[in-house]
Amino acid sequence: MLNLPRLPLLDNLKGYQGSWLRSDISAGVAIAAVGLPSAIAYPAIAGLPPETGLYASITPLVAYALFGPSRQLIVGPDAATMTVLAAVLTTVFASSAGSADRVTAAALLALIVGMLCLIARLVRLGVLATFLSRPILTGFFAGISLSILVGQIKRVTGVQIESDGLISPILELLRQAGSIHWPTLVFALACFALLQVARFYRSPVPGPVIVVFVAVLLSYLFDFEGRGMTVVGNIPDGLPTFVLPRLEGLPIDGLLTGGAAIFLVSFGSGVIAARSFAALGGYRVDPNRELSGFGAANIAAGLFGTFPVTASDSRTAVNFAVGGRSQIASLVAAGTLMVVLLFLGDVLRILPVAALGAILAATALSLIDIDGLRRIWTVNRIEFIFALIALWGPIGLGVLNGVVIAIAATLVYLILQTMYPHDAMLGRIPGRDGFYKLHRVTEARPVPGFGACMVQDSLLFYNADYVRERLEVIAESLPKPTRWLVIDASAIPQIDSTAADMLGELQSDLKNRGVTLGLAELHTDARALLERSGVVEKIGPGMIFEGMEDALDAYETKYGRNDGQPTGSVEIKPDDHVRTGGKNGQA
């Protein structure tokens, strides 16, 4: 009998209880209510019509419900992803004179993001979720939020702003102060204040829902459109339809690179959201399986004429708060929004754009994690600097370039973390087995004539020179005459060819000083590389040991116990140009 693969939804519904259905239906309606304002507002960030946001809140929810692994995660439009999408679309249309529209380009980008998710799933690249560190993402999202805030100037003032960046648009607004449409600005500020009041008093009805209801009601009663306030306008009353977007007139290279940028940011932020809510729900998230869910959601988005999506913090939070138990809540939310499209399009038509600007501004402010930045400053000042670099990227160089800045900052941070490996001198405690770090264990004493040290990190091309300098300093500081210097390599997981050459050269230098170099407890891959490079043969197989105890036994067999050498402690002076905090003999 042919065994067909089961949909993840069926696995998630195992053990489903009938009593949960009421909670799932309530959660689905609440998700739709909370998602409606952002579904209408977010497309404006990328210059897309409001209905695309509604479509992005329907078909991707169904796709993730069918193929996603999480019981409670809700996908949909995301402010950070939309801002990156806006930058990609701007770049694509700046280099293309074709006839394609922004909706088609956005749908193609959603397809590309979905395919990248599935490819990454096949090759198990879920590790990409941890590629952008939390400090980098905290800074990046803060920069994104400031970009979103600046982008709302036109919606809340009615003034067309051409400048980019953070300060220039504000200065341009001041120069055009006479063009401000004051009723629009006052109404936007009132909506923003209403959102803050709802948040402060923990309103059971979400603030954006209240603002949309009040804004539509006032717009109907006082004819805001007739008084010069911009409204959303006509929203198609049909359901999203299947359509394969055409590539004609669009640059494939720009779409591919832009899709990769959206994929990295949306998947990184999506998995962080998934992990955060999984911790609340008491279960674990598999990033590789999430790639399947996100891939299906984005492919569905592209095939139904909308834009890339990812996990939605606000919608998932509502699902948790109301008590949603399964992805049935997503299906109910999608069905509710279908009803809105079919029957409430005329009502949403008169929604003032200023209200959407206020919702987006409030959303942007919520993305700025002040407590997170403060904690990073307290825990690690270097990480805080990189968070600021990631924050500056979207503001100073544009959102798309900001993605590159965030990735580059991550790479630089990773390199800095491993550029200066820890090292420590080792010694013995009389009457006890094993070796101990001299700077941490006061009872430990160096073994006469037997220099022992530990290096704690991979030896790679960019830190090989530093490690050689440190080992030469150690060799110079050893009591005379020390016959052997044995490196405990148990904490060296990797060695590359550059580091292998360095060890070979170090062996020659030490030999000229009358000191024999030895290596103990090499990892299998590291030893294999040293054998292929000829370093093991140069050092001598007799100086490669399974452990430090074996090395000491070999030394004492050859020279005798104590060897008549002094037992004073070894002093290694720190290298001033290297940062402190565990380096230079402080491993």
TrEMBL record:
Q: Where are the residues of the annotated region Disordered?
A: 559-587
Q: Which InterPro entries match?
A: SLC26A/SulP_dom, SLC26A/SulP_fam, STAS_dom, STAS_dom_sf
Record's keyword terms, sorted: Membrane, Plasmid, Transmembrane, Transmembrane helix
Q: Which domain of life is it from?
A: Bacteria
Q: What is its main location?
A: membrane
Q: Give the species this sequence originates from.
A: Ensifer adhaerens (Sinorhizobium morelense)
Query: Pfam family example for this protein?
Result: Sulfate_transp
Is Iron-sulfur there in the keyword field? no
| Cellular location(s) | Membrane
Membrane topology label: Multi-pass membrane protein
Which CDD domains does the annotation name?
A: STAS_SulP_like_sulfate_transporter (cd07042)
Please give the name of this protein: SulP family inorganic anion transporter
STAS domain: residues covered: 440-555
PROSITE patterns registered for this protein in UniProt: STAS
The residues that cross the membrane are 25-46, 52-67, 103-123, 135-153, 180-198, 205-222, 254-274, 328-344, 350-370, 382-415
